[in-house]
Amino acid sequence: xxxxxxxxxxxxxxxxxxxxxxxxxxxxxxxxxxxxxxxxxxxxxxxxxxxxxxxxxxxxxxxxxxxxxxxxxxxxxxxxxxxxxxxxxxxxxxxxxxxxxxxxxxxxxxxxxxxxxxxxxxxxxxxxxxxxxxxxxxxxxxxxxxxxxxxxxxxxxxxxxxxxxxxxxxxxxxxxxxxxxxxxxxxxxxxxxxxxxxxxxxxxxxxxxxxxxxxxxxxxxxxxxxxxxxxxxxxxxxxxxxxxxxxxxxxxxxxxxxxxxxxxxxxxxxxxxxxxxxxxxxxxxxxxxxxxxxxxxxxxxxxxxxxxxxxxxxxxxxxxxxxxxxxxxxxxxxxxxxxxxxxxxxxxxxxxxxxxxxxxxxxxxxxxxxxxxxxxxxxxxxxxxxxxxxxxxxxxxxxxxxxxxxxxxxxxxxxxxxxxxxxxxxxxxxxxxxxxxxxxxxxxxxxxxxxxxxxxxxxxxxxxxx
Length: 466
Fold this sequence. Notes:
Strand content: 15-25%
CATH architecture of the largest domain: 3-Layer(aba) Sandwich
Radius of gyration: 27 Å
Largest sheet: 4 strands, parallel
Strand order of the largest sheet: 4-3-9-10
CATH superfamily of the largest domain: HUPs
Distance between the termini: 39 Å
């Protein structure tokens, strides 16, 4: 697999530190509010990265943190008259609901910053011992001038970064670009004891400490949104490598921004949407599909029209899956030798699968991979008719489930509503047998009102989502 490395600005072949194993660290949310649509993109895209690597046989350790102590959290907690801990617990729980709705796998290591204070303090102390940090009036700062490689991730030197930044004069810093590792205690704020006084960690040091604990001093892949390249990831590189003297991450992957109706997402512009808000209008699987329809590094424009298109495309996949399942479950297939058309289809599946792999190996080209999936469906639908060979239809279903599973699609299983519809279909069949046409029509109308399409076929009634 080849991935674009932000640090080297070129595609590089993925060669893990340890054969057969990949360690990934993804920056997670600051849990003071619901996640927004911009947060959803890295969640989905790097979930696919993880799924794909596991599908290819790698043992993946995937770590995604929660920042549960931060200025934003303190301010929100004070506004609500609650504690930072209670605020964090509430929005971590809400995060998991959104994660599930987006089809993101849940068995991730989710470290919290507040549960790793000893590791953070030890890392700050190491930087002080190495002459890369200093204590000041309001905490401990990283000395950017003392680290020669500062700016290498973002591709700028210290002077360029200083010139391009809006920097407030701070008498506590030696250099304007120095950043806080440990913030001294302020009235009304949570704090912890440390050798440098009572206080709390800075944002950047949290991720370095947590990634090192679970993935070691050097990790395979560090990923996150493009907005994190500077200063967050730049500062992670400086403090991590300053402490260990080793490369922090072999590969850096960053997803592009999301615009709303061709405009930058902004609360002041009134086009700022949380995942929860979008979920009130759309099934969030359509949002996941929408994200996969573009390359993860490209800017992406979010609009109602594009989500509707994604919804329609996703429905095609669900309809194909439902058709294959229906034929197999309702006796619509026959145990016989494959005919020429079926043999051609089955023999062509490896080539489609290989095209899927080729796309994914090319810096996770999910749009191309989706194209391969639709080619599978197009060919599969031709042979999936009444009387088809069981083996051919089963191959279509198994291949569809396999490839969409890698992308994290088609994750909605039959729910209680679907079970109720199945019962209604059976009741309608019984009414028809009894020639109670009025009752049969009533049940049909009820099924339609529940958002399903009912079709009478030689194999029996066939129902699917409208």
